[in-house]
Amino acid sequence: MKAGQGKLKEGTILARRYRVETFLGCGRAGEVYSCRDLCDSSGDLVLRLLGPVDPAGEEGRALRSTLSLLVRLRHPSLVPILDFGIAEGPGALFLTEERVEGASLRTLAGALAPERALAVGAELAATLHHLHGRGIVHGDLRPSNILLVGEGEAACPVVLGYGLRRFLPDGAHPPPPSCVAPEVLLGGRPTARSDIYALGILIYLLACGRFPFEDDDEGYLIQKQLQAGVDLRPIERLRRGDSLAPLLGRMLEKDPENRTVTALETAAAIGALIRSDGPAWEPECRFSAAPFVGRELEMERIEARARRVRESGRGWTIFLTGEAGAGKTRLMEELRSRALLEGWHVAEGACGGPEEAAYGPYRRVLSQLDPEGEPFLFEQTARTGLSDPGEGASGYATGQFQDQLTRELLRRLGNAPTLVLLHDFHHADRSSCAVLDYLSADIQACPVLLCVSLRPGEECHGSLEGVMESGKRNERGEVLTLEPLDRESLHRMAEGIIGSNDLPPALNDWLYRAVGGNPFFLEQMLKHLLEQGALLRCSGGWRFLEENAQALEVPAEVGSVLVQRLRYLPAPARSLAEWLALCHRPVAAGSLALSMSWRPGQVAGAVAELKRRQMVRVESSGGREEIDFSHDLIAEVVRQNLPKGTAARMHRKIAEAILQEHGEDGRLHELAHHYIEGRAGDSSMRVVLAAAARSRAEFAHENALRCFEHVFGRPNGLTDEEACRAAIDASDTMFALGMAGRALGLLKKVLLRHRSVGPEARARMYMQLALACQHIGDTRMQETYCRKGLAMFGPRPAPGPNLTRAMLWAELAFIAVLQSSPRKGLKCLDRAVEACPEENATTLRGRIQNLYA
User: Fold this and answer.
1) How many angstroms separate the Cα of 163 from the Cα of each of 29, 128, 589?
2) What are the phi and psi torsion angles at 203 (to 5°)?
């Protein structure tokens, strides 16, 4: 294929997410493109278009399992695989990866100093051991799949192209015979032992600058690989070559049955050669994310439901419940992997904390379903606000907005089979739950499987429980609860995390007693044991010091485990963890440095320590690196153990940093959250009130109430007029939440405190008090407040329209109707019509017409 030609055209969008930008080339690993992720505005990624795959049968199940593991696998010497899917046009598997720049191993082979060449070989062997320990065979180990990143002697190997060779068609992108084991050349499937053969070839290449078998004719080269013995004399002539040659001889055995050396043994042997005068070499212990075990029955049930949804075209909702760390996210990750291979569209969102903008999970789902589409009404509503003061925050307007949002979700879902994953819905507010109720009902006309995860008993209110009951009662949803794993599943999971099947039996028994069947507790406990020296990596296996583990007094709850892990952190790392926990989101190192008043080098050192302990991860987003906790529960434990006064001061510092970096409008909800948590004073009020206004415009009444509680919970420095306007907005919010009594108390308090407010504003406050009494059902006081409001305009009010006066007369007319006094009501309505303005009073005019009728 000529340069510039590929199966995918520039601008093609795959999986509604990745836009192809440039064709980079076609090699043995398939076609390679640069692409851009439209959903998170990240920088250039690499997209590899591989051959077609069959997702059915045993091979299909193995492929799904492998891909699910690969996208979660992280190691400094592996190019991270970020996502995958099936390209709709060519029907081929594609992968997206981080873009890594470096020279291929072939270009530097023979140019490295002997010691450095051996060190690179040891690093490759250790990386291969990490893969093999997780059941992954590279299958395509060759120079072009290894990049040396860095300059000169400091260059480190980074491996790509791993794990998928066995699933591609036999004729698709065959590897060069110079690096292929004899059994694979004869048609066998790649195995760990064929990887060892390829690794031996690469170490030979690094040491000598050429392959052990070379020939311009491919047929003769294959014959040499199958039959010729390897010439180890060039190796023997090297320094320490007399020790390296026997190792390579074992690695390059023609018969795989005789090729018994492992990647770990190879790394240890080369490490011993390099450190002949120092301590014995030991591989670095790196744990992997938990493998998918013990949830097969739950997955079968979900897959059966997905098939019925696809065949019938009728949507269904699954509420996935379980305690924190039970494996809900892991199950949904596995479901996503399987759905992508079967041609489903996938979109997902998660509920965050109170600093999140309203309807957060739906915003993310909308952007994923149509990342280049027109923005939804969030933006236009936030711009226009509540322009009609007579409308307030009525239940009708809220319902209308939520109905529009549901319709837009359905429009973007379309008629293609789609999996929607909503995480952590126990954090959802009432508005998000209301939309979920609408959505679960309306998807019955679409091939949509909606999966919602939550922790039972941790809902913020009873709305979500009502949605779940409604779904079950109307036969449009079901609840699937994840129980703790059994002992055998926990054992298999521990082996997968550590990457070894030779764990001491005493460790397995102790772990089951200590953590029960919670996967997250297990993962954290293993890290804790390793850090505290109760679990040791020794030559040939693992050693568990049970007496040391008992001395740790490990508690049953993971929160206590995390508290102990945090206690052992160096002071800078612990301090950074505290600041990061209060941010509630991934944060760039520069932003942390600004908040903490640290130098960038100090932040980098603390991040490195936390990363080494696998407590944080660093990922690329929007062209910059951001730091986040490995699990949300770590942040929760950190926040719980911070003294309130200390946390408040830190929140104020974070707010100052956000203001300096993004301005007031850049992160309005987040800025207001930190001001509120920091109990900030007068300077915060303008920002918090702006956040309340935006929340009201989006009908996120609970978020708005939180802002108003901050404003009126302390001296606020507002003028009389500003305080009254804010109290009126706050009472509208309380009316929407069914808190009329609380609104009445607030209005009285503000009116009493701000006695010098002008007559117009005082009249509007009396109008709001009358509305509060209407909500409560106190007609006598409702009329009293209306009369007091009209008295503010004097016995001879100025001629001309006045919205507040019109509202007061209309309210008196309404009271007259309730009292069966039609003549009195008509007089009040005539006065209301005289005072009603021509503009910005549509709702009030409609009410007057209804009362006339």
Assistant:
1) 12, 11, 33
2) -65, -40
* Cβ 730 vs Cβ 743: under 8 Å: yes
Q: How far is CA 478 from CA 427, 472, 555, 663, in A?
A: 20, 6, 35, 45
pLDDT at 283: 61
pLDDT: is 573 or 374 the higher one? 573
State pLDDT tens for residues 831-847: 888 888 888 777 888 88
Q: Please answer whether residues 487 and 452 qualify as being in contact, where contact means their C-beta atoms are separated by less than 8 angstroms.
A: no
CA–CA dist 3, 417 (Å, integer): 36
In a domain, 721, yes or no: no
Task: Kindly state whether residues 28 and 85 are assigned to the same domain.
Answer: yes
Q: Is residue 153 very low, low, confident or very high in pLDDT (cuts 50, 70, 90)?
A: low
| Residue that is written with structure tokens 């320490």 in the block | 240
> Looking only at Cα atoms, what is the longest distance across the chain?
116
pLDDT at 355: 65
From 587, 720, 751, select the one nearest 658 (Cα to Cα).
Answer: 587
Q: What is the DSSP letter of 588?
A: E
DSSP letters, 676-693, are HHTT--GGGHHHHHHHHH
CA 85 – CA 91 distance, rounded (Å): 10
The percentage of the chain sitting over the pLDDT mark of 90, rounded to a whole number, equals 47
| Contact by Cβ (8 Å): 852, 825 | no
The amino acid occupying position 426 is: H
Instruction: Count the residues in the chain.
Output: 853
Do 426 and 303 belong to one domain?
Answer: yes
Which tens digits make up the pLDDT trace of 396-406? 788 888 999 99
Q: Give the residue, 214 or 290, on which the prediction is more confident.
A: 214
* Per-residue DSSP letter, 839: S
Q: What is the CATH number of the domain that holds 146?
A: 1.10.510.10
* Residues contacting residue 63 through CB under 8 Å, at least 6 positions apart: 53, 55, 164, 167, 341
β-strands 18-27, 156-159 pairing: unpaired
Instruction: List all residues 6 or more positions away from 811 whose beta carbon is below 8 Å from its beta carbon.
Output: 767, 770, 771, 774, 782, 786
- Could you tell me the residue range of the domain that residue 418 belongs to? 296-481
> Cβ distance 632 to 455 under 8 Å?
no
Directed axis angle between helix 263-274 and helix 192-208, to 10°?
30
Question: pTM value?
Answer: 0.80
C-alpha span between 432 and 451 (Å, rounded): 15
> Both tokens of residue 453?
């995860």
Nearest 10 degrees: CA dihedral of 588, 590, 592, 596? 180
pLDDT per residue as tens digits for the range 474-488: 999 999 999 999 999
The C-alpha angle with vertex 583 and arms to 580 and 584, in degrees rounded to 5, equals 105
**Distance separating alpha carbons of residues 415 and 159, to the nearest angstrom:** 40
The number of distinct structural domains making up the chain is 5
Write out pLDDT tens, residues 178-210: 899 999 999 898 999 999 999 999 999 998 889
**One domain, residues 374 and 467:** yes
